[in-house]
Amino acid sequence: MAEDTEDLNALAAAYGVETSYTDWRGRPADVPVTTIRAVLTALGADVSSPETARRELERIEAERRARLLPPTAVVFAGEDLLAADDAEVWIELATGGKLPLEPAEPGSSASASRPPATSAGVAGFRRAYRLPPETPLGWHRVRARRGDREEVAPLIVAPSRAPDPGERSWGLMAQLYSVRSSRSWGMGDLADLRELAVWSGGALGAGFVLVNPLHAGEPAPPVRPSPYLPMSRRFTSPLYLRPEEVPEYAAADPETRRRIEELAAPERARSRTTGEIDRDAAWTAKRAALELLAEVPLAPERAAAYAAFRERQGEALTAFATWCALAEEHGAFWPSWPADLRDPCSEAVAIERDRHADRVEFHRRLQWWLDEQLGAAQGAAREAGMRLGIVHDLAVGVDPGGADAWAYQDLFASGMSVGAPPDEFNQRGQDWGQPPWHPQRLAAAGYAPYRDMLRHVLRHAGGLRLDHAMQVFRLWWVPRGASPADGTYVSYPYGDLLGVLLFEAYEAGAVVIGEDLGTVADYMRDVFAERGVFGTSMAWFERDESGAPLPPEAWREPCLATVGTHDMPPIEGYLGGDHIALRERLGLLTRPAAEEYAELDRSLHGWKELLTSLGLDTADMTAALHAFLARTPARLVGVSLADAVGERRTQNQPGTVDEYPNWRIPLADAAGHPVLLDDLPRHPRLMRALGPVLG
């Protein structure tokens, strides 16, 4: 039996599946054998018996010995390419021409505390080949020949570090849907984002605005509120369009504009209340307005611009628009569709695409308008003086029934979802319901869907925040039907994923910020630092070994420094223990509320002592905490707009779905009055809160 387990564990190691890990208490934890088997099966391994597992291990080892190149080669500038021994290796440049590679002198081996960084390392390649200094950054092809065997693989030469943000800058952090103006259709949109950036950049000297993920959701109501469980990360949600900002609005006849104004009126009235944001109502009205605008003929120059957009987006745009059209008819969960529509390449899908040609065209055009309004927001931000402009957020994954999961279904691991192991705040673990990328298949696909997704999000961005930044290193896989506590970590070739990310960030001139809060292996933060990826430091979590707040000089420099996150209440709510009261009411506490309040009191006492010792007035904790952030060496300082206006309510309560109105809280002040974008320049509390960082 021990021999059977030994073979299974060896096979798991070959696939990057952990059989044990260190839990949040720092104690070793073993992964259930049932989980290991389920994960290996999802990865395509036959582990139905000890004999098949042994044969699978032998197959992998033989395949790796025979290979000359990794499925995709990723090399950072100034570093070496790993390939098979005794091979002739050369690069075919994207611009034409050939660069032969010579074997390099053996260098220092990778740190034993880190897993292999690239798929070349995973495959066991050790022979290094030196890239000539003139090798340009970008996508090329690499070829290798040994005897009569020859292989070719995609090659990306990535910059060694992410773009640097330069001198210290600060910026507002906002859940865009919550930031409404007098012209909003019930929720914040890209026109509001443009105005927020112009005002904060021009009048206040802000260097950036960080917003929630703007990924695409359902194409028809009901539209779920979470921006972190999208239908697609490759495309954008048309909920954020401002219909009147679409150029075809100006070209529309008076009757069309009148009808659009009628659709907008009730949603604008809703923006002046503190009721929950109603995405269904907003999208119903906007979709009707945008359908009217889609009927307006395009002027010649507009038609040319649209044709260029469609050519640039390629087949991915048509596939997404097809999914949207089918989802309008069959629902936004493709596994429940008629069987012949579940394959995006089927003849039935082609027939339906032709039958729904008008809806496919409509959804393509929405993405064009979004591209224009995203570009206008970033352009206006930079013109207003922002060093970075808009910093976008990248969710960890996608909905299993959505457009990406349909279009790229072979690249996701079937029967698995992403989550998190038990921790101090979620002792049962978490299951986020998102299918994980299949590491080996993604590499074999040349990382094309990953690359295209990043290129889209970064196209009009000055920066990118990686939610749960560990996503480039490893993810916690939970077998379908299992408890999140019974999942395990599966490793990804982080050097590959970082290389693709850094190249796309380089092309966009955008900084990269990793949300590396919580339990993070030390090597992960080391890798980020080496590659110029900024971390995230949050005041409530920054403590020394005794649990006391970390003094400002002990904070790291390459990070985004904030007071809190969207998963915690704003400062006013935190000070009042609102998060404890809410969790107690919802039955989410794992210990008596009295203990939670006592711990909060101790934490706040420590913070007040530290702030007072620094000469800061704790009578206004919001201003004092932001003054504290200004004293850290952090080169990026983020100020939550909700904190600045005195909002008490949290945007999201982890561990809930409908028990709390997650992602539906509009911006309001401490008294519960709505705060519109129009009010911000004259908002006295906001200016007091921002005062410490403006200097």
Automatic annotation (TrEMBL):
It is an enzyme of class 2 (transferase). Residues 69-159 form the MalQ N-terminal beta-sandwich domain. Pfam families: Glyco_hydro_77, MalQ_N. It catalyses: Transfers a segment of a (1->4)-alpha-D-glucan to a new position in an acceptor, which may be glucose or a (1->4)-alpha-D-glucan. Keywords: Carbohydrate metabolism, Glycosyltransferase, Transferase. The keyword Lipoprotein does not apply. Its EC number is 2.4.1.25. NCBIfam families: malQ. Belongs to the disproportionating enzyme family. This is 4-alpha-glucanotransferase. The gene is malQ.
